[in-house]
From TrEMBL:
<dbReference type="InterPro" id="IPR009057">
    <property type="entry name" value="Homeodomain-like_sf"/>
</dbReference>
<keyword id="KW-0238">DNA-binding</keyword>
<protein>
    <recommendedName>
        <fullName>HTH araC/xylS-type domain-containing protein</fullName>
    </recommendedName>
</protein>
<keyword id="KW-0805">Transcription regulation</keyword>
<dbReference type="Pfam" id="PF12833">
    <property type="entry name" value="HTH_18"/>
</dbReference>
<dbReference type="InterPro" id="IPR050204">
    <property type="entry name" value="AraC_XylS_family_regulators"/>
</dbReference>
<keyword id="KW-0804">Transcription</keyword>
<feature type="domain" description="HTH araC/xylS-type">
    <location>
        <begin position="171"/>
        <end position="274"/>
    </location>
</feature>
<dbReference type="InterPro" id="IPR018060">
    <property type="entry name" value="HTH_AraC"/>
</dbReference>
Length: 275
């Protein structure tokens, strides 16, 4: 997702994002539906993922999104998927999008819902939804864009996802661990293990994160740390780079700069000057 999405996600009382609670039978697989109304700029915007796979449905049938991966541009269409660890990936567009519907999935059930391997995001982090949607996708896409109201479009999507529901078999404690990480923020793998030492060990955690979330626990924690540091740097102009770095568990500002380059391809100074 555009990294701007997460800034508004953290403040759901604003005018730029509307959360729609999923029906009870879908809560196990969907964290929430979000009408993202902040708009999508014509300029390049950094894409990022916080550990929750998402499917984004653009408002208009002709609103196709293009992404740039290490300088190579490709179109991912008007319904696209985003997940895994995103590094130096930017969204590009010739028009200014007004809004899109974002479906934010729970990682431990996302892969089973669409019958895909847990390593699919290691190969591609952003791609057209048609690649995993399965049977009936074209009919659903046509029905979605034929609808004029949000309520009608939600009904189309909920019916489509409901048909995909099946019995799940996964360690329930993974959802608890993920929620714990999201609440606490700056943690290490050791912190997680110490909190659940009666229930698991490192090998279990590593194996089940990769199996059910598609990434290692270390990668998940690094993504969450960077996202929090980015939002601090973007929001709190009174904080300097070193203070932001230390507040978010980095050793120093150079450590944070190195991470910033890994995810965005440039230094914080170059990134925000360009913005």
């Amino acid at each position: 997702m555009p990294i701007n999405f997460f800034k508004h996600l953290a403040n759901q009382h604003g005018d730029n994002i509307l959360k729609i609670i999923p029906p009870e039978h879908l809560k196990e697989v969907i964290e929430g539906f979000y009408l993202f109304k902040a708009g999508y700029p014509k300029e390049r915007e950094l894409f990022f993922n916080d550990g929750y796979p998402v499917i984004a449905l653009m408002q208009g049938k002709s609103e196709n999104v293009s992404i740039s991966i290490d300088g190579r541009t490709q179109c991912v269409g008007n319904m696209w998927v985003c997940g895994g660890v995103l590094r130096n990936i930017y969204g590009e567009s010739e028009i200014h999008f007004q809004e899109c519907l974002v479906i934010r999935f729970r990682p431990v059930t996302f892969f089973k819902l669409f019958g895909i391997n847990e390593d699919c995001f290691q190969k591609k982090q952003v791609f057209n939804f048609s690649e995993i949607a399965g049977h009936g996708f074209e009919k659903v896409k046509e029905a979605y864009y034929d609808c004029l109201s949000l309520e009608e479009r939600m009904e189309v999507i909920v019916n489509f996802l409901s048909e995909k529901m099946s019995s799940y078999c996964y360690p329930k404690i993974l959802t608890d661990i993920q929620n714990y990480i999201d609440r606490q923020g700056n943690l290490t793998v050791k912190d997680v293990l110490d909190s659940y030492k009666v229930s698991l060990n490192y090998k279990w955690l590593e194996r089940n994160f990769k199996k059910h979330l598609g990434i290692s626990p270390q990668s998940y924690l690094l993504m969450r740390r960077f996202l929090k540091a980015y939002m601090d740097l973007d929001s709190f102009t009174s904080k300097d780079l070193l203070q932001v770095a230390l507040d978010n568990g980095y050793y120093d500002d150079n450590h944070f700069i190195k991470d910033f380059r890994r995810f965005s391809g440039v230094s914080p100074k170059a990134y925000f000057n360009r913005q």
